């Protein structure tokens, strides 16, 4: 009997060892597959960021189509087609009416801005403190700096071309996403375990709601800043005023940093007309953003949402380092995405805290289980 028992145990031991080896191999394969997928995703991270931009555009298109359908009584599909056609028609009409003027003015900005930069460098080199500052900056000189500015001006055309190409791709993706939002939403929800799908649906609603409200607020701010800036520069007699106003409005999509980026070329252009004009331009920009920060933005925040200044700056720098220029442009909505995800999944679901607005006027609300989307 003892011999039979020993032989039975000896037969079981290899089987148990084989099972352990098989389990280890399976886990190792899972780890390798996950690592490979992570590496592949990182290789196409810019494509994923572009997809997020398309989703952001789709949210705006769907919101506009939903509003039009509610007011006219037509189906959302027809309303979306109307919004897309109207948007393209408006863009084409603006391009036909003002395209040549804007092209000439943008060309003037690219030509004049390096001259303004050279004037700044000449002023610095003519001052002992300025020369000391330049000496502390390694490898800088007037000729090299001016050449750099000129090359940046020329390279800006290529950057604008790439940006327009990405915008067209994102726009077409956004139209398809807005046309069938339930289809793509369902595909994403199917990837979530059945027990957590209700929470995932609530999270999607929350993210869509806050991004929609943020888009509305940004659109109001951009139109206001662009109009005020263009009119102000025109009244001051600054060259290419409307092109600089358009640039100021578009760059306001990037919170805080965009305002500084918009003021730099306008100041350089004004500097070629005289230091007094440059000072007036700086004062004009300060006045416009004072009005925006103290009157326009508070009114917008009452119905929309925005990021605190420190968080906006940190997110712009962080996403810019991670994803480049596209990360800078989409830093604010990406940050809102992270904030709402943490609020719904971690703070409400994980910690069990009652629903609370993570941002001013963000509108996070909850049903009885604390997972209600943004109101």
UniProtKB/TrEMBL annotation:
Keyword Transmembrane: yes
Classification of source organism: Bacteria, Pseudomonadati, Pseudomonadota, Alphaproteobacteria, Hyphomicrobiales
Gene Ontology CC: one annotated term: membrane
Disordered: annotated segments: 354-375
UniProt entry keywords in alphabetical sequence: Membrane, Plasmid, Transmembrane, Transmembrane helix
GO biological process per UniProt: transmembrane transport
InterPro entries documented for this protein: AI-2E-like
Source organism (scientific name): Methylocella tundrae
Family indicated by similarity: Belongs to the autoinducer-2 exporter (AI-2E) (TC 2.A.86) family.
Subcellular location per the Swiss-Prot or TrEMBL entry: Membrane
Basic and acidic residues bias spans: 365-375
Protein name per Swiss-Prot or TrEMBL: AI-2E family transporter
A matching Pfam family: AI-2E_transport
Entry membrane topology: Multi-pass membrane protein
Chain segments annotated as transmembrane: 21-41, 47-65, 77-98, 160-179, 214-236, 242-271, 278-297, 317-340
Domain of life: Bacteria
């Amino acid at each position: 009997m003892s011999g039979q028992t020993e032989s039975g145990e000896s037969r079981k031991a290899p089987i148990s060892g084989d099972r352990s080896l098989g389990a280890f191999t399976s886990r190792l394969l899972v780890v390798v597959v996950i690592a490979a997928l992570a590496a592949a995703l990182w290789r196409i991270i810019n494509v994923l960021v572009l997809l997020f931009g398309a989703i952001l555009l789709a949210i705006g298109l769907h919101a506009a189509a939903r509003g039009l359908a509610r007011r006219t009584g037509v189906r959302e599909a027809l309303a979306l087609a109307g919004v897309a056609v109207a948007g393209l028609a408006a863009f084409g009409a603006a391009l036909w009416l003002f395209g040549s003027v804007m092209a000439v003015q943008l060309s003037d900005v690219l030509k004049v801005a390096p001259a303004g930069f050279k004037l700044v460098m000449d002023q610095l080199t003519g001052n002992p403190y300025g020369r000391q500052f330049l000496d502390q900056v390694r490898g800088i000189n007037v000729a090299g700096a001016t050449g750099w500015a000129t090359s940046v001006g020329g390279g800006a055309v290529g950057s604008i071309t790439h940006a327009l190409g990405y915008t067209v791709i994102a726009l077409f993706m956004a139209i398809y996403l807005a046309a069938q939002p339930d289809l793509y939403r369902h595909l994403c929800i199917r990837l979530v375990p059945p027990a957590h799908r209700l929470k995932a649906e609530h999270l999607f609603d929350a993210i869509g709601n806050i991004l929609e409200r943020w888009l509305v607020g940004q659109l109001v701010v951009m139109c206001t800043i662009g109009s005020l800036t263009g009119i102000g520069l025109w009244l001051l007699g600054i060259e290419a005023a409307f092109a600089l106003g358009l640039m100021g409005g578009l760059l306001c999509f990037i919170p805080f940093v965009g305002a500084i980026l918009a003021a730099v070329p306008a100041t350089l252009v004004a500097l070629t007309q005289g230091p007094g004009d440059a000072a007036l331009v700086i004062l004009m920009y300060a006045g416009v953003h004072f009005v925006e920060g103290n009157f326009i933005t508070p009114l917008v925040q009452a119905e929309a949402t925005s990021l605190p200044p420190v968080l906006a700056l940190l997110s712009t720098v962080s996403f810019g380092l991670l994803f480049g220029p596209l990360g800078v442009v989409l830093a604010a909505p990406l940050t809102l995405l992270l904030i709402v995800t943490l609020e719904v999944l971690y703070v409400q679901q994980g910690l069990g805290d009652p629903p609370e607005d993570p941002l001013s006027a963000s509108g996070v609300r909850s049903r009885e289980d604390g997972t209600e989307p943004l109101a």
